[in-house]
Amino acid sequence: MAEKGCIFKTSFPGDGEELWVISRHEPDSGHFEAVRFIEGSKLITVEVSLSSADGRSTSLIWLQTVTGLDDSGNEYVEALSEQARQTHMDALGKFLAHYCETGKMLGARCPASAELPSSSRPSSAR
Fold first, then answer.
1. What gap in Å lies between CA 66 and CA 124, rounded to an integer?
2. pLDDT single digits (tens) 98-123
3. How far apart (Å, rounded) are the C-alpha atoms in residues 64 and 77?
4. 18 phi and psi, to 5 degrees?
5. Burial class (CB in 10 A: 0-12, 13-18, 19+), 107
6. Contact 22, 6 (CB under 8 A)
7. Cα separation of 35 and 16, whole Å?
8. Separation between Cα atoms, residue 126 and residue 33, nearest integer Å
9. Residues 6+ apart with CB under 8 A from 16
10. Cα separations (Å) of 86 from 2, 63, 112?
11. What burial class does residue 52 get, using C-beta atoms within 10 Å of its C-beta: 0-12 exposed, 13-18 middle, 19+ buried?
12. DSSP for 72-126?
């Protein structure tokens, strides 16, 4: 269950452990924000907004701000490319669509991972 103040961990092979803190959760207005802390190397703020213009489809705005906290985190930020971010967001869209249609998560990693340092995961930065 997601709610403001919720804290949870994720871990993906090759990516290390991430600590998430939900800082905003407003399901009625379609807004969600979280802060991701990744093994002392980077901090990522995630802002998600959902809206429906026609009642049949949903638009998603997903913003992330990536901050390096040490040399490896700074290397990650410097290695981000527009192509890697776009590849990551395209994959995220497919993962979310699959989950909404089936209720099941896909286990694949984002294909943009190969374009970044081995200890990093791609993200969209603003």
1. 8
2. 877 888 877 655 444 444 444 344 33
3. 12
4. -120, 135
5. exposed
6. yes
7. 16
8. 15
9. 38, 39, 119
10. 27, 12, 9
11. exposed
12. HHHHHHHH--HHHHHHHHHHHHHHHHHHHHHS----PPPGGGGGS-TT-------
Q: Which residues contact 47 (CB under 8 A, 6 or more apart)?
A: 31, 32, 33, 61, 62, 63, 64
Per the structure block, which two tokens stand in for 90?
């395209």
Q: Which tokens belong to 54?
A: 């026609």
Residue 50 CA to residue 107 CA, distance in Å, equals 24
Task: Tell me the CA end-to-end span of the chain in Å, nearest whole number.
Answer: 28
**30-62: pLDDT as tens digits:** 999 999 998 889 999 999 998 887 888 888 898
